[in-house]
Structure formats: C-alpha cells, structure tokens
Amino acid sequence: MADVSQKSGPLALLVGFGLFVLFEAAAFQLLRFATSGLGMDNQFQPENTIVSNWVKTVVFLLLHLTLVVVAVLVLSNRMPRRYRGQLMGWFYLSLLTGFLLLWPLFYP
Predict the structure, then answer these.
(1) Cα–Cα dist 39/22, whole Å
(2) pLDDT category, 1, cuts 50, 70, 90?
(3) How many whole angstroms separate alpha carbon 52 and alpha carbon 31?
(4) Total-model pTM
C-alpha cells in the first residue's frame, strides 16, 4: 500500500507560527501575573538578594514547562494527523523561548 500521508504546506507553518506567538504571549502575561509577588522588580538595588529572584525564576520556568506540556498533550490528540509533524518543533522552540522570556520578566 502506498504512503498517502500529506505534508503540511507553508501556509500551515505560517498559521502555526502565528498560534505559537499568540500562545507564548498569553503564557507570558499569565505567568508574569502569577509570579508578580515573587522576587524584586529592580535588579540593581544594593540590598538585592539572589534568593527571591531565584525562586521567581524557578517558579516561572516550571509553570511555563507545565503549560507547554499540557498544550502539547491536548493538541496532539486534537490536531489532524497531517499537522502533527510540526508539533514537536514548536515544542522545542517553546522550551527555548521559556528561558528567553526571563529577560523581559526581570527587566520590563
């Protein structure tokens, strides 16, 4: 039997990128609000300690990882088969983005 699986095209990648940016922006706003009571806003204070900011960093990264894993689990069951090939690429990019989002979290 011939392999009839269809690959997703450039339009699907563009839509995937748009949804990825939307997800990351929403996740950042939600997690920034959730971790707003932790850490210190101004990193250049003389009495600033790394402990409170370390807690905020770890909580942010763990919550981001949780959101991403839940999103991948839900999407992998709901997406049509032809688009599932993109999912792991967006997952890995989201893991990297979680670390990059620490910069605007501490330096608004």
Answers:
(1) 26
(2) very low
(3) 16
(4) 0.82
